[in-house]
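Mods, move this if it's the wrong board.
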Amino acid sequence: MEKLFKELSEFARQNRKALKDAEQWLNNFNGTFVRAWRCAITNWDWQKVVVVAKFAFDKGPEFLSNTILSGEYSGECHPSLDLIHNALDEGKRPQEAILPNDAIRIYVAIQKFRVSRVTIKRAIKKGIIKSYRPPNTPKNSPHIVSESELERHYQRWE
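Not the wrong board. Structure tokens:
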């Protein structure tokens, strides 16, 4: 467990830019720390998981065991440790897997631009527009695209 949190701290220190939005989210979170942890894991945002876990670790072992490591589990077999490990793995994926700041789902793109869903899908298939949809998601899950990339190819609704 100690090795995991050392790795977590090192990763957070080296990737401050990638975690900036998640840190801001935690600073502005209106609720308890336990609720912030649950929100991060329920909506599965690896950046929020990393930031919340690092914050708990920095607060000390007692805070850590009373928040994200609470419950009837003991030591190395706590499910939260697996979630933290998975978040670190996801964060260590190649840089191209990280979403751009202006990422939007395909449904939002349809509303903002003069383009149909089929046209966007065709552009993704041809490689004109990059899809940031995670690789292990079902085929029917919505594509995630860069708004600035769409702007280069399609006209906005006025």
